[in-house]
Structure formats: C-alpha cells, structure tokens
Amino acid sequence: MKSSLSAVSAVALITLTLTHSLGLTAQPVALSMMPVWLLFMLIAAFPLAFVDAVIVRRSQQLPLEGLVPITREADAATFWRLLAPLSILALLLLMGQASYHATHNAAWTQPSLMLKEALPYLVMFFAVGFAWVGTKRLLPFVGVLVPVALVVNATTATHIWQLILLTPEQWQLVASTALMSTVSTTGVYAWLLMQQVPVPVKASTRVVPLWLTQTLVGLAALAVGQTTGNIYLVMYMLCAIFALAVCAEAIGAQLQAKGWAKPIALGSVLLACAVTTTAAEYVGFDEAVKVVALLTILGFALLTGWIMKISHVRKALNFSSEAVYNLWRVAIRLLVPIIALWLLVGMVL
Fold first, then answer.
1. Helix axes 262-279, 83-101, angle to 10 degrees
2. pTM confidence score
3. Is the CB of residue 64 less than 8 Å from the CB of residue 255?
4. Of 83, 122, 170, 175, which alpha carbon lies 20 to 30 A from 301's?
5. How far is it, in rounded angstroms, from Cα 245 to Cα 335?
C-alpha cells in the first residue's frame, strides 16, 4: 500500500511539473483543451503507460539493462537497445526544461541577477540531493504538495470559462504534452514499478492507478490555469524539486544497475542536468526536447508493438481478456506511432 501511494505521489508531482514546463497550463483556452487532453490520454498515453511494464515484467530489469535480453529473445537488431540511452537523454532534457521553467518567472529574483541565474541550478541540486537520500520514504508525504498547489492556484488565477475551437497548433500542444508528461517511456514508470512488491499478477493493477492519477492531475492543472502569485510559485517550485528528484533517482538506478557507483551515477546526472538547464535558455531547446522525446516514444511503440514476440508481450501484461489485449496492441502498433509521426511532422510544417 505504501509503495503504491509513493508511486501515485511521484506521477502527480511529475505531471503537474511537466504540464507547466511544457506550456500547457499557460494557455488561455484551458477549458477547451480539457476534452482534448482526455482524448489523447486515452488513445495514446494509456497504451504507452504499459510499455515500461512490458519491459520490466519480461526482463525483471530496468530498461537500460532490460532491453538487452528483450532484443535477444526477439532476434532484433542491437540498434533497438539505443532506445534506453535515448530515453535517458529525453528525461534529462525534460528535467533541464522543468528546472528552468520552475524558476524563471519568480518575481522575487528580479532584484538580484545572481539569484535569478543560480536558482534553476539550486532546484536541480536539491533534486539530486533528495535522490541521493532516497525519495521513496518522502513521497507519501510530499505528494500533498500537488493538491495544495492546485488549490492555491485556483484561488489566485484568472479563469476564462469559454469554449472555442482549437487551432491545429493547440491540438498538437495538448497531444505532445499528454504523451511527454506521462514519462512512461523514459524509465520512470519502470523504476516505480520495480519498487512495488509483491509483483501483481496483472500489469494493469499497478499501471492504471498511475495513468489515472496523471490524467486527473492534468485535468485539474488545466482547470485552474496558471498564475504568477508568489505563494503559488513557491509551491510549484517545491513540486518541481521532488518531481525532478524522482526522475534523477530513476536515471541513477539504471546507471547503478550497469555497475556505476552511486556517487558517479548521481554526480553524472547532476552534471548532465546542469548542462540541459543551461541549454534551456536558448532558442530551439524546446523543439529539441520534443524531437528527442517523440522519437523515444515512437521507438518504444514500434519495439513493443512490432518487434517483440506477441506471446512475450501477452504474457508480460496478462490482461483479463484477449479482446483487451488486442485493443492495446492496435493502439500501440498504429495509433501511437501515427500520433507521434503527426507531431514530428507538425513541427516542420
């Protein structure tokens, strides 16, 4: 029960942080975006939420190590093993973007240029520090920051309650945020699932609560919008610190599984995040984040939908019926790749 609460708290913190850093909650047409968010969370993010479960339950390892036996069993090219480092890169870029976004609007930093420049790095430093201590014992308690932040925001934000037709760009923003904020192909889901013992018979027992949490938190974040009040910005920054701590620990766990010592693993994560935080200030960084993240999503969808053996995937997920499995398989083989390609093509058109 405690491990399940920790996982739910982790995904709530991450969803609130990434929906903000990816720019979704800053849109003035949030009410119109809510049904679109639900649509893409159902047809794309939900199938993706089971990808890490397939890898973990089949290999009993995190993706960086687990893709080796999976590609070997499927007689697949070693090229597919590059998805694990690519997913780590995507997560590092998302972390850099989030740490920069969590601090650059803080009004109290305006009088001090030094504080303004240093704050994103302090956020990342504290995040990796909590990752070193271990976030698992903290998550059942810090998860309360999410509802508190949403309530504070709801009391101070300006709401525009009107329904309008969304532009193609706004549809793409909602879709890309729904896919990327789930971080279900970056190893975070895998790390959270590995913490939960005993292993349930059905993958859905652990995956569905996480997906449902992210769906509801995303809806709540859209409903309350985004404000610039100092109290809310402090709450949001605290949420970001613990969300990034979960991500840092997930990456560190994969590196340690490869034989890296803990100080080297988390030190490398801190250094890489400092680089991505610095890069977040430059034009084109947001596009780079989306390209890497969407390529990762596309790659994992193809791997689990087309490359892995059907019997292995079916056994790993152990859905309640063959019909449910077939629906998932259609979604991961067709819907998710089509949506990912649509978003990638939409960036250049």
1. 60
2. 0.95
3. yes
4. 170
5. 32
Which CA distances in Å does 56 have to 59, 60, 146, 219, 267?
5, 5, 28, 29, 25
Query: What would you report as the CA-atom Rg of the chain, rounded to the nearest whole angstrom?
Result: 19
Q: And the tokens for 103?
A: 């601090």
The CATH number of domain 2-346 is 1.10.260.40: no
Tens digit of pLDDT at every position of the chain (349 positions)? 567 889 999 999 999 999 999 989 887 787 889 999 999 999 999 999 999 999 999 999 999 999 999 999 999 999 999 999 999 999 999 999 999 988 776 544 555 667 778 889 999 999 999 999 999 889 989 999 999 999 988 887 666 667 788 999 999 999 999 999 988 889 999 999 998 777 788 999 999 999 999 999 999 999 887 777 778 888 889 999 999 999 999 999 999 999 999 999 999 999 999 999 999 989 899 999 999 999 999 999 999 999 999 999 999 999 989 999 999 999 999 999 999 999 999 998 7
For the chain, the residue count is 349
